[in-house]
Amino acid sequence: MRGLTREYVLRRFLMFLLTVWLGATVLFIIPRLAPGDPVTAMVTRMMQRSYVEDAQAIITAWKARFGLEAPLGIQYLRYMFNLVRGDLGYSLAFFPTTVGEMIADALPWTIGLLSVATVISFILGNLVGALMGWRGTPNWLRNLLPVTLLFTSIPYFMLAMLLIYLFAFMLKWLPISGGYGRGVQIGLNWPFIRSVIEHAILPAASIVVTSMGFWALGMRGMMITADGEDYLVLAKIKGLRPGWIFWRYAVRNAVLPQVTALALSLGGIVGGSVLVEYLFAYPGMGYLMYRAIASQDYTLIGGIGFFLILATATAVFLIDLLYPIIDPRITYKKK
Q1: What is the third-level CATH fold of 107-285?
Q2: Cα separation of the two ends of the chain
Q3: What is the pTM of this model?
């Protein structure tokens, strides 16, 4: 690949493995620093709801079932071995459902919602920021563009509540919550697809409207910085069309730091948007994380955390490899 060396790719891959290993180790250590243990907490909650006979025997049996009676070193080796095999264990609150099954059910919803919302926000925000920072933008458009950023200062969960009240309660145009309507047959059929789109509009809109200002302000600063560069002056002297200079010279060079931020954002998508998905009861990773925290399901929290670490590390690794393609000036080859 242009601009890359085998040594650099190998070094970055080893750094990727080290990052994932350290993240997984931290996820193993943190729950065990807290007082008590998840099995005792789970049985205690059961006792609060109903009478449990011989609770200590149940606790002992469940600890043996989940391997919590073994020494800490043995638990760690089992934990890492299971991670390598892709086994995230059983959910404590939703036993006998496995953590992998619950994540597999929630992950497509989050990826579908947040990836689309993030990409739309990225495109719109960078376009607005590029036009705001470009000298050739007409004055009427330059005065109009800041209006699109009015909702940037509003937290997205507050905008989500406003959208629910306006479009779901008052106008009744869109559904209030859920991922699809009741009675809809799940599958590749138009009624199901339409229901999924209708349920995703409000949570996606709350994310896009409140986050595009982040991209716009960053892109505006980069465009102002690039405006005085020699290559832009030379392009104008050569008499190139303004539109060509805007897209091929200014935007292409200014957008590079934004692409890095986009890669990190896409990596964080796995974690979901907890508050937005909670408000809309959207069946994604964010709502699953809320349920895991509310039920003190440590294995499920650890599984979601591991997926988040893995996705973010993968995004950073890939963007490092793609930099020479995005910007030919960047090379990792020794001269």
Answers
A1: MetI-like fold (1.10.3720)
A2: 16
A3: 0.74
